[in-house]
Design goal:
mainly beta; OB fold (Dihydrolipoamide Acetyltransferase, E2P); 13% helix
Length: 117
């Protein structure tokens, strides 16, 4: 998982240098991101996808997610809820006994990078 932030202060934090980066910048955030690209995650233990996420002003992130019952077409362009902390991004999901893996999504379109409160 990696983030490509647009600002230099975040870029240096990604490489382990936290000088000049406030503690607030390293706290976890929930935000809405858009799935820009979906690829099969080769070599993963369970069938999964590698996602490239657009996070608005926060740049881009890559992360993986279990396939569940999702096809690539279901995910490409979809908005999802993302937990962002430091250089890690996780797509949030609910695990249902009857429905399996269900990704958390806003019920209306919002700007990419919108904070979830």
């Amino acid at each position: 998982m990696s983030i490509r932030p647009p600002r230099e202060t975040c870029q240096s934090a990604r490489h382990g240098d936290t000088a000049g980066v406030s503690e607030e910048a390293q706290l976890p955030e929930l935000l809405v991101g858009r799935v820009a690209a979906v690829e099969d995650h080769a070599g993963a233990r369970a069938p999964s996808y590698l996602l490239r996420l657009e996070l608005g002003p926060r740049g881009e992130a890559e992360t993986s997610v279990e396939r569940g019952s999702y096809e690539r077409e279901d995910l490409e362009g979809a908005q999802v809820v993302v937990l962002l902390q430091g250089d890690e991004a996780l797509v949030l999901a609910a695990r249902s006994h009857s429905a399996g893996l269900v990704l958390l999504r806003p019920d209306r379109a919002v700007e990419d990078g919108t904070l979830v409160s």
